[in-house]
Specification:
- The protein is an all-alpha fold and about 250 residues long.
- The protein has a domain at about 5-50 and about 110-220.
- About 65% of the residues lie in helices and about 0% in strands.
- The longest helix is centred in the middle third of the chain and has 26 residues, at about 80-105.
């Protein structure tokens, strides 16, 4: 298995690079960019959430509970008092971080079907549903946020699979094939259940056409610039030059 630090670093790098490209294309607001980044990082750590005793898993669940609690609080009316808003946040955090985590660890096993490709799709659809129905984000935003979680999830599986390959030896490790998997022959019931639940979630998700039309149509990226046209950081340097010149003129007048 790859280390927690590796998963965090890779998912952060991939999520930041992808969200910046979407922002540069004018397809996301700063708030949406932050949402996409956070969802990608969560996805990159999520497969190990079925480990009961790991400190990193405990920290991961605490992080997820914190983010969800803030989203729930932001969804409340703005005329609530500070104490009421904090009470809502605190209650949400307690339910997510203690009650839900306790139930989750009882019904899952480490490196089980949570750590699989179909589970990544399941969490994509589930996060899309939650963001849409509970927090009222737009259709393209909820689908893209879920897609970031899906991408981070797959990066975790891929890194764990790479870690199971001992390139210095002829034979792979015993853990090879247990990370990037599509099911378990030993647990057919759970495998079928994951596929069935994923299918049902897809039919329950909101319309995905706005998501496809927004992010996968070539015309949407007409304004995207991968490289600068008038020199590197030209706008930034010009801004500071103007400020410096203006400051110099003001000092001369004094």
């Amino acid at each position: 298995m790859a280390e927690f630090k590796t998963h965090l670093t890779v998912s952060s790098f991939l999520s930041s690079a992808s969200s910046v490209m979407i922002y540069a294309a004018g397809l996301a607001t700063p708030q949406e960019v932050l949402l996409y980044f956070v969802m990608g990082v969560i996805g990159g750590l999520l497969p190990d959430i079925d480990s009961d005793s790991s400190l990193t898993v405990r920290l991961l669940f605490t992080f997820i509970a914190t983010v969800i609690s803030f989203l729930i609080m932001f969804h409340q009316k703005t005329d609530n008092s500070a104490l009421e808003l904090y009470g809502i946040w605190l209650m949400s955090f307690f339910v997510m971080n203690y009650i839900f985590f306790s139930l989750f660890t009882r019904i899952t096993i480490h490196r089980g079907l949570i750590h699989s490709v179909p589970a990544s799709v399941l969490f994509w659809f589930l996060s899309t549903l939650v963001l849409y129905h509970c927090f009222n984000f737009s259709l393209p935003t909820v689908w893209m946020a879920g897609f970031f979680l899906f991408g981070g999830f797959l990066s975790h599986l891929f890194l764990d699979e790479l870690a199971s390959l001992d390139l210095g030896k002829k034979r792979p490790k015993r853990s090879s094939g247990t990370a990037f998997k599509f099911g378990s022959a030993r647990d057919l019931k759970s495998t079928i259940a994951v596929y069935v639940v994923t299918t049902l979630l897809f039919f329950a998700t909101p319309d995905h056409k706005p998501f496809v039309e927004t992010f996968f149509a070539s015309k949407q990226y007409a304004a995207f610039k991968a490289l600068p046209e008038n020199g590197w950081f030209n706008d930034l340097t010009q801004r500071y030059i103007v400020r410096w010149q203006t400051r110099g003129k003001d000092e001369c007048r004094l």
